[in-house]
Each structure stands twice: as structure tokens, then as C-alpha cells.
Amino acid sequence: MVTEHTPRTAVVTGAGSLRGIGRATTHALAAAGYHIAVLDLDKEAAEDTAREVADRHGVKALGLAADVTDADAVDAAIGEIEAALPPIGALVNNAGITSPTRFVDVTPTEWDRIFEVNVRGSFLVTHRVAGRMAERGFGRIVFLSSVSAERGGGVFGGVAYSAAKAALLGFARALARELGPSGVTVNSVAPGLINTDITQGKLDEERKAAMIADVPVRRIGDVEDVADVIAFLARPESGYLTGATYDVNGGSHIH
């Protein structure tokens, strides 16, 4: 557990949504002792998450607007975090967008946008913080992939989304090898069907019931189910866990 003797900051991207995995993750990490920095396209949402976390957990929290696909914006935001909060010890690459478009209908513009946010965004933020983590000899980096990357879509994401989330798996595994000797771990979390704003209202009751019936634990996942796994990976005690993918799907896609 992070202690007052080792104050560290966790950066969570895309954590503005009220019912999102990102916001739940900020709470889980703050409960574990991390100070929190929230990056989101929506400045007010990022600030709201930060206020909520600070009030509930008594940690320092900062909410900033940042487009993770913009290198200058990322550099400026991380600079603000470094100036205002303790050293960055954890990064959760949560910012992402999905697309259900069939492959034969997807345009190059849409394909590029999916990769811009999910892959380039993760690259830019990780590239900005990883070097200093390695210099300090401690870091916990977590990528949000998806069950779609492992099973090949079939839930909400189409080919573009599945391909982008699969790219993150390779990214994380290779980076884990490179940064491991410096005390920095890199892992992926692959959620299945989770009850978020992305899924709200997009499943008719018949399909929803059929999907739940195929889940061994017989329910859709909650954002806290994912956040708790991320917080576990971010602990100092989890230093022997790296290069792995942790499925959070209630057993629906056992492989």
C-alpha cells in the first residue's frame, strides 16, 4: 500500500464520465493512498472527478482538460501534474472510444480515429511519464484493453476497436520487458461486458438476458469490478506481476 512516507500520484486518463471505469478507478487508487490526477477531454468533468475523490478520500486531486492524441496538450498536462502533485507512480491508460461499425462499412477516417485515441493516446501519455518512473525505480502502468481484443469483437466493438485494443496488448507486453529492470511494471486489463454509460440503453432486454445467462457469475460487471483489479496492479506489493493481461468478465470468455 502507498504510505505517507512514499507519496505518489496516479494519473488516470478518460476519467470524467460519471459511470465510467476511469472515475471508479480514481476512487480505488485514492483509497489505496495515491494522490490523483484526472485527464479528460471534458474539463468540468475532470475537475468534478477530482473534487469528488479529494472530498471522499482526503488525498490531493487535480482535474485537467487534455486531448490525449495531442502531444503538446499531453506534455502540458503532465507538466502541471508534476508541478502540483507528488511524483507520478502509476498511470492508467483508460481513455478510449469504441465503434460498432462493420469492417466493410468503416471509413479510413473512422479507423484512424479509433487508433488515434486508443493507441496513439496511450503512447503519448505513457511516453511522457515512463522515463521518469524508470529513473525513480518505481512505476505501475496499466492499459485498458478489452475482451474484444481477445475474442475478436462480438460484444459492442467492431474490427477497428478490436484491432486497436489488441495493439495495446502487444504494446504493454513489449514495454513490460523493457521497463521491468527499472522497477516499472506494465499490465493490461481486459473488461468484458461492464455496466457503464457506453453500454447503457444499447442492449434490448432479450439480448441482455441471453448474455447474462452465458456469464458464469450470472451478472454484468460493475465498474468497481474493473477498478479493484487496476488498484491491485498499482500496489507497490504487485511488483512481480508484469506483462500480463487480466480478464474481468465474470468467466464469460474463459480461455
TrEMBL record:
Positions of the Ketoreductase domain:
10-192
Q: Where does the chain cross the membrane?
A: none
Q: Which SMART domains match?
A: PKS_KR
InterPro entries (UniProt xref):
KR_dom, NAD(P)-bd_dom_sf, Sc_DH/Rdtase_CS, SDR, SDR_fam
User: What sections of the sequence does the record tag as coiled-coil?
Assistant: none
Q: Which PROSITE patterns match?
A: ADH_SHORT
What's the short name of a Pfam family annotated to this entry? adh_short_C2
Query: What does the similarity note say?
Result: Belongs to the short-chain dehydrogenases/reductases (SDR) family.
Protein name from the UniProt record: NAD(P)-dependent dehydrogenase (Short-subunit alcohol dehydrogenase family)
Taxonomy, top ranks, is:
Bacteria, Bacillati, Actinomycetota, Actinomycetes, Kitasatosporales
